Amino acid sequence: MLNDPPGPDDLPDAPTGYAALPPDYPPPPPGAAAGTGQPRPPGGGTARSPLRLVLAAVAVLAVLTAVVLTVWRVGNPPPVARPSLPATSPSAATAAPTPGSTANQDYPAALSAFYTQRLTWSPCPDNPQHRCTTMQVPVDYAKPGGDRFMLALRKAPATDPAKRLGSLVINPGGPGGSGVEYAQYASFVFSPAVRAAYDIVGFDPRGIGASSPVRCLGNSDMDLLFSADPTPDSPAERSTLLADVDGVTKRCAARGGVRAMHMSTGEVARDMDVMRVLLGDEKLNFFGGSYGTFLGAMYADAFPMKVGRMVLDSAMSPNQTDQQEMTYDIQGFESSIDAFIGWCVARPDCALGHDKAAARQKIVDLLDAVEKKGLTTSQPGLARIGEGWVGFSIFMCLYSDTSWPTLNKGLAQAFAGTGDILLSKGMSVVERSSNGTYAPSTYLQAMIPVRCADWPRSKTDASVLAEQRKAKAAHPLWARMTGELYDNCRSWPAPGRAEKGTTLAVGAAPILVIGNERDPATPIGGTKQLAKDLDSGILLTSNHDGHGTYYAGNPCVDSAVDGYLLRGKVPGDGTTC
Fold first, then answer.
1. How would DSSP label each residue in 68-113?
2. Other CB atoms within 10 Å distance of the CB of residue 472
3. Is there a contact between 164 and 158 (Cβ–Cβ < 8 Å)?
4. How far is CA 193 from CA 62, 286, 313, 339, 561, in A?
5. pLDDT tens, 221-245?
6. Residue 89 and residue 92: Cα distance in Å, rounded?
7. Cα–Cα dist 406/4, whole Å
8. Whole-prediction pTM value?
């Protein structure tokens, strides 16, 4: 029944079919899912791992900032003691590369204490087959003798040491996603062949998760981001919205202090180069998903000669302008909502009816009604929710076609005036408990410091505002999902990154950039732009819905990515699966 709570087995009726790559990339044997040895579900394609989907939800990327914070761009924590760098005695459990080795060259002398520290790996508490450790990096690379971040690392060792090619450093995006958690589920995220050949190494970026966390938002701040009216209808309502979010941004800066001013992706990229040397790798092999593609691009641009085999999945370019991002955002959302509507109207229980043309307007009307009246819920402390929670939850259900049944049930319940299903979805993504507390690991804690450092401040000249108004009028559902367009970083006390707008990573080895044609979070336009902006970018697209491309249901993509990671074989630029 439509009003039953959604369950983990809510799956689409049939998976999507795919075109084939050239013969160089043979598909898995008939009847087997790519790289798993498991039976393929009826209708073709590969079943998505439930844990893979959880990780995709954790990897909430930059575009989502516009939904969560209703923006265009999108007490003090206890001090972290500054420990001494570990001694470099030869008795350390796992030593750094020996002085003079290839992996240990080409770093500034002022940073030698960081590049020569030794990593002492020990069994992880939850899985003794994995290894955990920490490493230190300077809070401010311009002042390496000052305060330090302690970064948490987790390694899933190569399952076949005889085939080991090195380390594969991974990042799930966010910003704010945990790479340590990502590595914990390495067997669900990477094929057995990749797992056999690489140590999968995940880390929590500086200020995030277990890496000297900067917690600059309280529970009330995060609730305010969802309770504020994202579509103000009057100057007074708009003024209230701007004041609320500016207040959250100012409080984050005050609570986060100096460390919050040093959580940029550019600084994380420098941390990864220290990590590369400590892992003993001459070049960095890297897999980044979602906002992790931004990290990969920043690393490649800063250290092009140190790029090994790099895969950027569901991408965005550091060169994207406001107008380009708006265009990609519209294209990604429209294609994703159309795909959901097409699936829904073919079902006998579709909450939107059976007329494609009318279905979109029904969602518009629902959001307008929610803005006026809200939805009732049984959640303590959230007896009534508004557009913020509802729009965010709808958007998150578009991340994967496996969430479409949940969205259908949630919409049906919402049309009846109740928001329990949609609220449950939204709360699970941001890790809000029923008692109103958010998990310390929620990506929301990192969203403001990272985004405000990473992106140039938005332009608000008359021509830009006119283009925004035109786009909102032409795409009313997108406009309601996105909310008011403005820069939430305008009250952040530090400047954003300077615009680059030139070719990235000149001289780097081939970088494989992949993405789904219908991705609501990192739209395919941004993926195509990054592949073009990278001097050595190779584009591979998947005719698929949702966010996350590799090991997510397309054997053609999996074969191509594995061929590149394992043998250095890149598909032809522009290949479509």
1. HS--S---PPPPPP-PPPPP--TTSSSPPPPTTSGGG-S--GGGHH
2. 18
3. yes
4. 31, 16, 18, 33, 11
5. 999 988 888 888 889 998 998 899 8
6. 6
7. 10
8. 0.81
